[in-house]
Design a protein that fits this description.
This protein has about 210 residues and is mostly helical. The chain is about 60% helix and about 0% strand. The protein has one domain.
Length: about 210
Amino acid sequence: MASFGHVAVGLLTGRLHGGGARAAGRRAAAPLGALFLFMTLSMLPDADVFLVALGASDGGPLGHRGASHSFSFALVGALVCALVARRVGWPVMRTALAGGLALASHAVLDALGAGGRGLMLFWPLSLTRFHSPWRIFPDAPRGLKLLSQAGLFELVAELVIFSPLTLYALWPQIRTRRQRRPSLQLIESHGGAAPAPARPASEQDPGLRSSG
């Protein structure tokens, strides 16, 4: 599938994790850094296309939808997230779980896509590629084929399907910005210097003074 569904799930994971706000015990919008981190993790498995571009065999474990789309890769990613969480002061178990789910969600969404090859879900135990018998999400083509009529239609369908999830994930950020806007307007209205009172016309221009 195209990447918008992965972005939506990553943003949702970032909101549920909460980042530093949750770590401090405050119920606040997740910081943008946390949203970006988990969004990146949810898209990370597709980095295998760069390995293929560098010469890796597309049909092997390093190819597209190979090892990077496996559940073992998500487990390793969860362990790395736990180590990073200890350094930055985030909850270790929560961060490991969120990171692992963000990575694993990529394979799940791809398996439910309408097209594409199977995935090596159980690498390195098995090199067999699996696909779900249920294909419920559109699979927008990649490259220049995306600009075709069919590609654009499938891309729009994916945007419509995942837009409610994206809105829910970003709603705390949107609400916070809407609450800050009136305060900023109030500060601007009272922060500037008071306008000087208008002077009588006779004082503004000596030529207008009465001669009587």
